[in-house]
Amino acid sequence: MNSIHEVREEARKLLEEKRVGMVIGYGKGKGKKNYPIFITDPQKVEELHFESDCFYNLAVYLRKPEVCSHGKLAIVVKGCDARSVRGLFSENQLKSEEVVMLELKCDAKGIGRDKCTTCRVKNPLTPEEKNPIDGEIAKILAMPMEERFRFFAEEFKRCIRCYACRQICPHCFCKTCIVEKSEPQWISSTPSPLGNWSWNFTRAFHLIGRCVECGECARACPVGIRLDILNRYLAKSVEEKYQFIAGMDEKAAPPLTTYKQNDNQDFIR
């Protein structure tokens, strides 16, 4: 779809014909602010809004019990959001017949948001050739190991363990997060150097081959930790080794969640 007007008409039709029970989209707030809206009344679809300030990834709401209780859902998606939804399909967290995606073209110019300058899918399912964040990764990889360690140590020491990165991520869907387990306790829950390293790297490892690089974790972090750099590096490694990009094919399982009996295992040394 090319405009919010088309989305509104489609949303109205879906609700009136009772093909969906709810439409998830963006609403216009004061000034340049916007917020998620959840529409069940066809008469309220005019509240749907879309401009360059609509940078939130709405896919995180699709698995919320209070949202799922409305039955089949429709959701307004940009390219990065569409990847998240397809990723949830591929991991059997959602069924494709339960979600209608109202896809909108996006110019990747979210107001004041760095995450939008690194977007590789300005239009849904259209990968760009280069990701600007790769230049930052190259600088870090060029550092001596000790300097690279100091870079991440400086980043992670700011972590206050608020878990905003986890809460905003559509792909952090464990019923009980490893950081909340106390018997045994795998990761310290206090904001300490060791606990912060363990938490941030464990979460990054859990997202290998699953992260769609929507940038919401870095945007939501109240202390500005560059989680996007770490996640992009791992996503790039998966792409190079397995020719896999998360969220581009809803029928393709993430590489680290599957196996082949004829795998030559040449990565094992």
Summary keywords:
269 residues; alpha/beta; 2 domains; 4-stranded mixed β-sheet; 35% helix; globular
Descriptive account of the structure:
With 269 residues, this protein is α/β, with parallel strands linked by helices. It folds into 2 domains: 4-117, no CATH class; 133-257, no CATH class. The protein is built from 10 helices and 4 strands. A 4-stranded mixed sheet has the order 2-1-3-4. α5 crosses α10.
The sequence of SSEs as H and E is HEEHEHEHHHHHHH
Q: Distance N terminus to C terminus?
A: 49 Å
**Rounded mean pLDDT score:** 88
Structural class, judged by helices and strands?
Answer: alpha/beta
**Largest sheet report:** 4 strands, mixed
Percent range of helical residues: 25-40%
Structural Rg: 19 Å
Please give the domain count. Answer: 2
Query: How many beta strands in the DSSP annotation?
Result: 4
Low-pLDDT segments, ≥5 res:
124-128
Summarize the structure.
With 269 residues, the chain is α/β, with parallel strands linked by helices. The protein is built from ten helices and four strands.
Secondary structure elements and pairings:
Elements: H1 4-16, E1 22-28, E2 34-39, H2 65-68, E3 73-77, H3 79-90, E4 99-103, H4 114-117, H5 133-141, H6 145-156, H7 164-168, H8 193-206, H9 216-220, H10 227-242
Parallel strand pairs: 1-3, 3-4
Antiparallel strand pairs: 1-2
Helix pairs in contact: 5-10
